[in-house]
Amino acid sequence: MRGSLEPLDLGIQIPYHFRCPISLELMRDPVTVSTGQTYDRGSIESWVSTGNTTCPVTRANLTDFTFIPNHTLRRLIQDWCVANRAFGVERIPTPKQPADSSLVRSLLNQSCSHSAPTQLRLNSLRRLRSLARDSEYNRSLIASHNVCHILLPIVFDHIASDELKHESLALLVLFPLSESECTSLASDSDKINYLTRLLSHSSFDVRVNSAALIEFVVAGTHSPEIRAQVSNVDGIYDGVVEILKNPISYPRALKVGIKALFALCLVKQTRHRAVAAGAPVVLVDRLADFEKCDAERALATVELLCRVPAGITAFAGHALTVPMLVKIILKISDRATEYAAGALLALCSESERCQREAVAAGVLTQLLLLVQSDCTERAKRKAQLLLKLLRDSWPQDSIGNSDDFACSQVVVVPF
């Protein structure tokens, strides 16, 4: 085995045995598994959490899933970091030890104890939230103690203090809810109205956490009628859209906000409410701020809102909508391209001005590249429909007038 890997941009080499065999990155918390192999804790925990039961290097079955901290190796790595400080290497901090089951059980018992002082309950909840944020292992351990079943009653406890309810909510949204929990919560109008009111709370963290729980509930409920009932609550779209308007210095707000808005907009009957709340303007204004996955979700939401007349009007009225959608084609991902093409098709089908704007923004070149690319068939069919629609808007000297792109056989795919 090699003693080192390729040089980093820093101009130095990381010793081979300091790298995690899974991530190939410098280990920050080396742990040894039952086969004797050492991995970075985060990498091996992710490996096991996805259902793997073997050692990644040896492929031998793991006889148990206890990860023993390799303190000697961690100290060697820290010494190496200090020795190479001149090259910009920062010393890795000493990792926190994972939580144990008895501690988690004790903290949860204190959190839900009505006889315990409020401050003790708050401290227990905050300690649990800190543990949950430390590692995937801690989150799994806390989840195994039926944490959602314990926290939900506190969040909606009429007697508990607001601070206690808000702290419980902040911890709750770190864990997925079961389908039965989502359906039960979504069916309770009083609880949904309470969460909707929290979307206007003075604390931005409370607002974001409320939006996160609303998204969990809507996405986790399979009944169309119940989902429609939630999305039809007065003020729910307004609250979510307001979260998306906040500065990008709070990236979690963008992530939570777009997930919640997308989940709500999947309900056809209430999309007009999203438009009335100003979602089209916010989506266009913030499109460039989203990370890849969230950008895909934002574009999917744009396409959904382009399926209602009010949405078409709102997006068409924003000067940046069409140029931005054209620019996105083939830039972010196949999914993003498909959603952008679908939104453009909807806009151009209803507005000649949008057709002219799209052509002026260079959509013809983008679409011709798209139909020849390895993008999804659905995206290509949308591009073909859009090319056919725009033929009368093509400049006389445009390559688009070529019979090679006549799109004579177009398959119409319903939105």
UniProtKB/TrEMBL annotation:
<keyword id="KW-0808">Transferase</keyword>
<dbReference type="InterPro" id="IPR013083">
    <property type="entry name" value="Znf_RING/FYVE/PHD"/>
</dbReference>
<dbReference type="InterPro" id="IPR058678">
    <property type="entry name" value="ARM_PUB"/>
</dbReference>
<dbReference type="InterPro" id="IPR003613">
    <property type="entry name" value="Ubox_domain"/>
</dbReference>
<dbReference type="InterPro" id="IPR011989">
    <property type="entry name" value="ARM-like"/>
</dbReference>
<dbReference type="GO" id="GO:0061630">
    <property type="term" value="F:ubiquitin protein ligase activity"/>
</dbReference>
<dbReference type="InterPro" id="IPR045185">
    <property type="entry name" value="PUB22/23/24-like"/>
</dbReference>
<dbReference type="InterPro" id="IPR045210">
    <property type="entry name" value="RING-Ubox_PUB"/>
</dbReference>
<dbReference type="GO" id="GO:0016567">
    <property type="term" value="P:protein ubiquitination"/>
</dbReference>
<dbReference type="Pfam" id="PF04564">
    <property type="entry name" value="U-box"/>
</dbReference>
<comment type="pathway">
    <text>Protein modification; protein ubiquitination.</text>
</comment>
<dbReference type="Pfam" id="PF25598">
    <property type="entry name" value="ARM_PUB"/>
</dbReference>
<dbReference type="InterPro" id="IPR016024">
    <property type="entry name" value="ARM-type_fold"/>
</dbReference>
<comment type="function">
    <text>Functions as an E3 ubiquitin ligase.</text>
</comment>
<dbReference type="GO" id="GO:0006952">
    <property type="term" value="P:defense response"/>
</dbReference>
<feature type="domain" description="U-box">
    <location>
        <begin position="13"/>
        <end position="87"/>
    </location>
</feature>
<keyword id="KW-0833">Ubl conjugation pathway</keyword>
<protein>
    <recommendedName>
        <fullName>U-box domain-containing protein</fullName>
        <ecNumber>2.3.2.27</ecNumber>
    </recommendedName>
</protein>
